[in-house]
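SEQUENCE, STRUCTURE TOKENS:
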Amino acid sequence: MKICSLGSGSKGNCFYISESQTGILVDAGLPVRKLKERLAHAGLSLNAISAILFTHDHGDHYQGVMGLLRECPALPLYATEGTAEGIERAFQRASWAWRIFERKTPFEIGPLTITPFPVPHNAADPVGFIVAAHERRLGLATDLGCLPPLLREALAECHALVLESNYDTDMLMMSGRPWSVKTRIAGLRGHLSNDDAATCIRAMQSTVLQTLLLAHISEECNTTYTAHHGMAEALRECGLGDITLSCFLQNEPSCMYEV
């Protein structure tokens, strides 16, 4: 199984995951032109996409879907019922043929087994995913205000993990954003800070984690250096200092990571 980021941040989110001949997008937050450019950077095209999975109904996770469907009208769309309804309302047009999944109920796309799990975030029905193939597991946990114990336990069994590290607390509080926005971001249904993400990793006590990819890093209230440095320290404390640690960026595709 492989994963790469095509863009991660408040301006647009999209991950590509593949196994054998099956490739899926998690979210479609990039304009189709950028999506094609970044797929090409990885040696791929739109033909490599078998389906799109949506985590929630915020624009930076679905704003590119209309353009993508114009070019690939038969692409299956997977979401919870609440997320599908939220995306349709945003486009104010006839309904699409959604494939609705239930939280905590696994489903399959080709060789990939996907288990959606609920996350605390200020959206209609937000989820993260654990994607499994050939006894390898990849966790995706972004856009969440905290990581509940049961979710930490599930993610601790993943060999690779995409984890939100959205903001540095001091930078957020010193930013020019309204206080209401600051408290929403820092709340239990907002986003994970660098410190939150590091605390989650310490609490997981994973014995199988090999790759940790930090995502949804704020361009205004964080830096990749700050996020990476704090997490590297936490990993060393956990005896995981030798695992692969990297940051996904907003404006550049990542390399392809093997799970």
